[in-house]
Design a protein that fits this description.
Distance between the termini: 94 Å
Radius of gyration: 27 Å
Strand order of the largest sheet: 1-9-7-5-4-2-3
Number of helices: 5
Structural class: alpha/beta
Number of strands: 9
Largest sheet: 7 strands, mixed
Shape: globular
Length: about 180
């Protein structure tokens, strides 16, 4: 039986011609990382209502007053709670709902074309708010989350799935009276 002894030239050849398996592994690793990075959605930008309005006003943006008008003034509205629809006024621009009704927010009976703000009442921070449920709302600008539970930006951000940057997500904790 003949013994194979590596010679210096055989080592040089081995190092000069990379192993095809290593290259394949490297390419596969890089490809998987790129795919994984693309699937990671951007973290939702969440703002507390009063802080957001103050920021807009300090930057002399009229959208701060417009948002205040949508939230605090009487608006033509839709109330969609527990599967029941109540419409007040012509061309409603605000939808009031609860977290359990969101999955049905694309209900064909809802007049969604003019909705600019969706006011979502939450009582449980473990439930998710899927923004894809609002994809047919052409004029939607604001997702407004209202809770009696103390919330932080990060807690609200964890509740959001299928984030879309075209929506501004704002929240407010209501004080118990």
């Amino acid at each position: 039986m003949k013994k194979l002894v590596p010679t210096p030239s055989s080592w040089v050849n081995c190092l000069a011609t990379p192993n095809k398996n290593i290259i394949l592994l490297l390419v596969l690793f890089l490809f998987c990382n790129c795919i994984f990075a693309q699937n990671q959605s951007t973290a939702p930008a969440v703002k507390e209502l009063n802080a957001y309005i103050n920021t807009l006003k300090s930057n002399n943006q009229s959208s701060g007053e417009s948002l205040e008008h949508l939230i605090y003034d009487l608006q033509p509205s839709i109330y969609y709670l527990s599967g029941k629809i109540e419409i007040y006024g012509d061309k409603p621009n605000t939808l009031y709902t609860e977290i359990n009704s969101i999955k049905d927010a694309n209900n064909s009976a809802l007049l969604i074309n003019d909705i600019e703000l969706i006011n979502i009442k939450i009582v449980d921070t473990t439930k998710k708010i899927d923004l894809s449920n609002f994809s047919n709302y052409k004029n939607l600008k604001y997702i407004y989350i209202v809770s009696k539970i103390n919330l932080t930006d990060s807690e609200v951000a964890k509740m959001i799935i299928n984030y879309d940057e075209k929506y501004t997500i704002i929240y407010k904790t209501l004080k118990e009276e």
